[in-house]
């Protein structure tokens, strides 16, 4: 099996701290207390995600946060400051929303699995960030909401990912009331995968990441891409697409190696080809 680099880099400064350990790139929102998704924070996250695209040492990405708030969403003070612009802030508002939309889509389209490690409040665009990740593991102290309606600003962009994770009725309940739900309710809604005691959160996320790291990186890339592609198709189109993906996957060297290893009862040696 290809060697996994133990430590490649660590950048403990700026709005996003990044470190790589055993194939896992850990990105930590580091502008407490609210960990807002300012333009600078979104740019830092985007840069890290873009840099991980073709980095073979990175197999899984975890997005976490410092402090008791995962993310309170967009920086309302930053947005409000631009109301004095000649266009009343329109250009900056458009920049903020376009950057956010691009960031969320890059998580969904990223070839590497992305896991949200949530410990605390995830609200508005912060909830959108959680919903955009492939998996979300939350501590039992975490809470979630889309409170825009409370301040006259409907959470329209968070709605996109929220409505793709939970049922319409549950999404509309959150969007129309702006009320906060606890971690267990978020799990029942389908917004997060698991809820664990706070003291075990990092350990459980670590178990997920190392399980995923042990798989063929090519297979994960193929599967993630196919999952999101077929989800937007009709049933017949989805089956046609998935069948083509399966055929191409079968022809990959990693599939040949994996099937051979299973038959021979040995550990597979992934090459990513």
UniProtKB/TrEMBL annotation:
BP terms from Gene Ontology = fatty acid metabolic process
UniProt name for this protein: Enoyl-CoA hydratase domain-containing protein 3, mitochondrial
Keyword line = Fatty acid metabolism, Lipid metabolism, Transit peptide
Protein family (similarity comment): Belongs to the enoyl-CoA hydratase/isomerase family.
Query: Which InterPro entries does the record match to this protein?
Result: ClpP/crotonase-like_dom_sf, Enoyl-CoA_hydra/iso, Enoyl-CoA_hydra_C, Mitochondrial_ECH-domain
The answer, when asked if Electron transport is one of the entry's keywords, is: no
What taxonomic classification does the UniProt entry list for its organism?
Bacteria, Pseudomonadati, Pseudomonadota, Alphaproteobacteria, Hyphomicrobiales
- Describe its function: May play a role in fatty acid biosynthesis and insulin sensitivity.
Pfam families in UniProt: ECH_1
The protein's matches in NCBIfam families, at most eight in alphabetical order, are given as: PRK08139.1 (NF006008)
Lipid metabolism recorded as keyword:
yes
Q: Which GO terms describe its molecular function?
A: hydro-lyase activity
PANTHER family recorded: ENOYL-COA HYDRATASE DOMAIN-CONTAINING PROTEIN 3, MITOCHONDRIAL (PTHR43602:SF1), PTHR43602
